[in-house]
């Protein structure tokens, strides 16, 4: 989720007027800025799709099982569920500021679909989260999120 410290932090843009204020950053994000971070995992103990990990002296970590993309089957509902679970776990620990990875899924998902689904959930789900930082690792991902923010801000 975090890039090497040699990369600069770039704040791309902010979207206000939705349920959650969304900011996109390139590179790293100081953990002190957020109340909790979300990590995508391949698997959790049987029966779990998410869990909240609290380690004394550290910020809470929300682990979400990321769905796998399928060109044959529409699994967008699973990706929506992953974002809702992240917000629910953030609510569980009272996190008002949340750091999210570029996508709550495994490689293969079209970024345009990921950003659309993420923004739909972030803009429509009741939550205590007021601000979400989307941490992107590449300029290409930054550009896609930028385009999504511009589209959403024109609604």
In N-to-C order, the SSE pattern is EEEEEHEHEH
Level of helix content? 25-40%
SS-based class: alpha/beta
Shape: globular
> What is the C-alpha radius of gyration, as a whole number of Å?
15 Å
- H/I helix tally: 3
Mean pLDDT over all positions: 83
Order of strands across the widest beta sheet? 1-2-7-6-3-5-4
For the report, how would you describe the main beta sheet? 7 strands, mixed
Identify low-pLDDT runs.
Answer: 1-11
CA(first)-CA(last) distance:
30 Å
Task: Give the percentage of residues in beta strands.
Answer: 15-25%
Q: Compute the number of strand runs.
A: 7
Write a structural description:
This protein has 155 residues and is of the alpha/beta class. Helices cover 30% and strands 25% of the residues. The chain has helices at residues 76-92, 111-124, 139-153; strands spanning 10-15, 21-26, 36-41, 50-53, 61-65, 97-101, 131-136. A seven-stranded mixed sheet has the order 1-2-7-6-3-5-4, with helices on one face. Strand 4 (50-53) and strand 5 (61-65) form a beta hairpin. Helix 1 packs across helix 2 and helix 2 (111-124) crosses helix 3. The longest helix has 17 residues, at 76-92. It is globular. The termini are far apart.
List keywords for this structure.
155 residues; alpha/beta; 7-stranded mixed β-sheet; 7 strands; 25% strand; disordered N terminus
SSE order and pairing:
Blueprint: E1 10-15, E2 21-26, E3 36-41, E4 50-53, E5 61-65, H1 76-92, E6 97-101, H2 111-124, E7 131-136, H3 139-153
Parallel strand pairs: 2-7, 3-5, 3-6, 6-7
Antiparallel strand pairs: 1-2, 4-5
Helix pairs in contact: 1-2, 2-3
């Amino acid at each position: 989720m975090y890039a090497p410290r040699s990369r600069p932090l770039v704040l791309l843009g902010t979207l206000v007027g939705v349920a959650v204020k969304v900011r996109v950053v390139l590179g790293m994000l100081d953990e002190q800025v957020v109340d909790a971070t979300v990590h995508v995992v391949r698997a959790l103990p049987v029966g779990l799709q998410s869990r909240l990990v609290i380690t004394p002296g550290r910020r809470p970590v929300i682990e979400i099982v990321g769905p796998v993309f399928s060109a044959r089957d529409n699994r967008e509902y699973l990706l929506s569920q992953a974002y809702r679970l992240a917000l629910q776990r953030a609510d569980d620990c009272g996190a008002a500021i949340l750091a999210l990875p570029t996508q709550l899924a495994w490689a293969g998902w079209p970024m345009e679909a990921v950003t659309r689904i993420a923004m739909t959930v972030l803009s429509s789900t009741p939550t205590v989260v007021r601000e979400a930082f989307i941490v992107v690792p590449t300029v290409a991902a930054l550009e896609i999120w930028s385009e999504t923010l511009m589209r959403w801000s024109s609604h």
